[in-house]
Design goal:
363 residues; alpha+beta; four-stranded antiparallel β-sheet; rod-shaped
Length: 363
Amino acid sequence: MDVTAEKQKEDIDQKEIEIQLSDIIHFIKGNLRKIVVGGIVGLIIGALYAFSKPNVYKVEVTVMPEYQSRGAGGLGSLSVFSGFGMDNANANDIIRPDLYPNVLQSVPFALDLLEQKVYSKKLNTKTTLQDYINKSSSPSLFDRIMGLLTFFSTKDEDDTASESDSRQNGQAIVLSKEQYGLVKAVQGSVLSTFDRKTGILTITATEKDPIVTASIAQLSLSYLTKYITAYRTDKARKRVIFLNQQVREAKQRYQASEYALSNYRDHNRSIFLNTVKLEEQRLQADYLLEQSVYSDLAKQLEQAKIKVEEDTPTFKILEPPAVPLQKSGPKRTMIIFGCTIIGVVITLGFILIHQYFFRKEFI
């Protein structure tokens, strides 16, 4: 009895599955024209959107930065340089390579990059990156539609925002709306990642012009190198400047004491008074003191210069920036295919909703 009941249940389940599949096939056949029309509409929208997007080029730069801790020896520096020991770094480290991407996403970096000059193949001229972005940024059809929809709602905000353009409040940076858009464009164009396992930093630049893209990648690497070098050697360079000033003053005092001693001896050559000898001894002691101070400061200055060279980081470029020959985007075929599928799915959804609420059954 139990075996027979199970067989009957399986037959019923199989019939239910066959009925469901047949309903689906009947549903698709009955609404095939609507589904095809929905797919064609999605295809047309996808084609308009895909071909309205300009070509984008990508350039990647890979570098292996040196990571040297204060007071670390050769083996410690080498292990961190190759990517090991990142988690064991002590608190005296000046800056970690895994924080380098944050430098290339900062507002000062974007503002500095906007002032740099780049050569544009499309514009056939050399101009600042800010002017290039303003001249080459042509809004697409979808951007224009969204701009028209949001024009009236943002008009009042634009008027109030323009009043505070280019103002500074203490150390804070106040950007105008145009500057804010340019900064966001640069931050979206330059991305960087650091692999903690391999110790390799990758800088990726994307832009509409291949030559400009390679220039942005190179400028980003140059900015990062200068920033880290200035950060790492800031204290040592300040010490060099301080010691340079001290050495100049000590040299003047040393030369003045030397001249005073020689002049005194020349004027009291044949005098053998004790007071004369005492004064000569005093001048000679001052001369020896100034000579010793000058010699010590000169040695410290040389050591400080050596310290600057030791603290200067090294960036080993593994893959330099190169002008791309092929575009990296947009993937128009995938966009069109995706929009076609979305059009079909939306059409099926509308048909199902319509039949469920109005007919209560599939036709």
